[in-house]
From TrEMBL:
The lineage of its organism: unclassified sequences, metagenomes, ecological metagenomes. GO terms for molecular function: ATP binding; histidine-tRNA ligase activity. GO terms for biological process: histidyl-tRNA aminoacylation. This is histidine--tRNA ligase. InterPro entries: aa-tRNA-synth_II, aa-tRNA-synth_II/BPL/LPL, Anticodon-bd, Anticodon-bd_dom_sf, His-tRNA-ligase, HisRS-like_core, HisRS/HisZ, HisRS_anticodon. PANTHER family: HISTIDINE--TRNA LIGASE, MITOCHONDRIAL-RELATED, HISTIDYL-TRNA SYNTHETASE. It comes from bioreactor metagenome. It catalyses: tRNA(His) + L-histidine + ATP = L-histidyl-tRNA(His) + AMP + diphosphate + H(+).
Length: 425
RNA sequence: GUGAGCGUAGUUCAAUCGGUUAGAGCACUGGACUGUGGCUCCAGAUGUUGGGGGUUCGAGUCCCCUCGCUCACCCCA
């Protein structure tokens, strides 16, 4: 169509949608505060090595999905593909280890991944990210999961499924890995090509292959639970019993492994039945080795990221409420050349009194201005003509009922406020 | 990166087997209604049929290339 267009995989959030985003962020902000999380604003680009070391060199995200470039100072810079690594970097850089632990932070903003776009997947997408840093307690895990579920509940999402798993720790994962490799070797012929490739690199990933043939093989694969070390097993049991205590409904899924290297112990995802193929609305878990991986001291942490684009999509699909759409209070209408100059002052006066007001700037007919007032869905029209000018008044019309009254100029702001408050809605 | 489907006005869609000047609803602008919106009626504006090449007397329609969009795989939010 037009040669003017945004790059592939990115999009504009226009006014008919942006107010809904405001609503969602408002709910999330309040939920964060209720759970004791403070907001931080982080940069959207970082040194490339933060991600390559933190997320893992062999992950898909780092191998082929990063927006990486060299800046004018010769540094390798990457547009963040996720926020957790930045969060931990910020914690370390600002010595938050000296604060009372855990430090609970959240942030919101765009993430970038070079992928082929499809439904629910963009190259720039928004996430809200919650991280609880400095505590190894299973209750921190449970709190994080509970927080994500409460946020979704408040937004009105219903068709959700929570799946959790434990991916072990450096003490027990090698053993599990060995047992998996052993098992898959015996069934190698039944695996797909990519899974055979995964055997050497990361056999855990075979578990979440969606091919039917591979799923049959993984059905009988050794379970993580038998391989978990005492500490991991205890931790996982504690997370589950606290979730039970909170009344959270979840499903254990031994196939859930997640794509980032830094996860230890708890891994979880929240899936929506209202989405298509890209149905994860939130994902997270514990990452006790991430801080060390990026060159810091040992700092345990747990957190999750939720996709805002997908949340909006699910809400739309499920018919959730977005609160009320912001509405213009007053539209100023002028009859002729003289009143046009005066109506600007009227609009200005209203604005300075906290009343939202707008007017026509194209010298259009009164009828056209009234039409514009309706099109803008204004509550009231303030009309000015010769008669009003000589009398020093303004005609105020309720655009819902059609009632109109004439109000003296001095009392206008007050009178409009009163009319708006009785309208309400 | 791989596969499939689709590209006609701002938008949703028409256009016979390949046939003459590419149409309609909605939206937009103006008017009927020279001081009042929503309803009604009338009028108007808007297209490189995504782009390029080919076949043909003739292409929106068929073929090739390309770009874009969409969905799926991979992976994830």
């Amino acid at each position: 169509m037009s040669e003017i267009s945004a790059p592939k995989g990115v999009r504009d959030i226009l006014p008919d949608e942006s107010w809904k985003w405001d609503y969602v962020f408002g709910v999330l902000r309040k939920t964060a505060a209720d759970f004791g999380f403070s907001e931080v604003h982080l940069p959207i680009f970082e040194h490339t090595e933060l991600f390559s070391r933190g997320i893992g060199d062999t992950t898909d995200v780092v191998e082929k999905e990063m927006y990486t470039f060299t800046d004018k100072g010769g540094r390798s810079i990457t547009l963040r593909p996720e926020a957790t690594a930045s969060m931990v970097r910020s914690y370390l850089e600002h010595r938050m280890g000296t604060l009372p632990q855990p430090v609970k932070l959240w942030c919101a903003g765009p993430m970038f991944r070079y992928e082929r776009p499809q439904k629910g997947r963009y190259r720039q997408f928004w996430q809200v990210d919650f991280e609880s840093l400095g505590s190894a307690s299973p209750y921190a895990d449970a709190e994080i999961i509970a927080l994500s579920l409460e946020a979704f509940r408040r937004l009105g999402l219903s068709r959700l499924e929570v799946v959790i798993n434990s991916v072990g720790c450096p003490a027990c994962r090698p053993d599990y890995r060995r047992r998996l490799t052993e098992y898959f070797s015996s069934r190698e012929g039944d695996l797909c090509e990519t899974c055979r490739d995964r055997m050497g690199r990361n056999p855990l990933r075979i578990l979440d292959c969606k091919k039917e043939s591979c799923r049959q093989v993984t059905e009988d694969a050794p379970s993580v639970y038998e391989s978990l070390c005492g500490e991991c097993r205890e931790h996982f049991d504690a997370v589950r019993s606290s979730l039970d205590g909170l009344g959270a409904v979840y499903r254990l899924d031994k196939r859930l492994v997640r794509g980032l290297d830094y996860y230890t112990k708890t891994a979880y995802e929240v899936l929506s039945g209202a989405l298509g193929s890209q149905n994860a609305v939130c994902g997270g878990g514990r990452y006790d080795n991430l801080a060390e991986a990026i060159g810091g001291p040992h700092v345990p942490g747990v957190g999750f990221a939720a996709g805002v684009d997908r949340i909006l999509m699910v809400m739309e699909q499920e018919g959730c409420s977005f609160g009320k759409e912001p509405r213009l209070d007053v539209f100023g209408v002028a009859l002729d050349f003289r009143s046009r100059a005066a109506i600007l002052s009227v609009v200005d006066l209203l604005r300075k009194n906290g009343i939202s007001a707008d007017m026509d700037f194209n010298d259009r007919s009164m009828k056209a201005q009234m039409k514009a007032a309706s099109a803008r869905n204004a509550r009231l029209a303030c009309i000015l003509g010769e008669d009003e000018l000589t009398r020093g008044t303004v005609a105020v019309k309720d655009l819902t009922t059609g009632e109109q009254k004439e109000i003296a100029g001095e009392g206008l702001a007050q009178a409009v406020k009163e009319m708006l408050s009785t309208l309400k809605g």
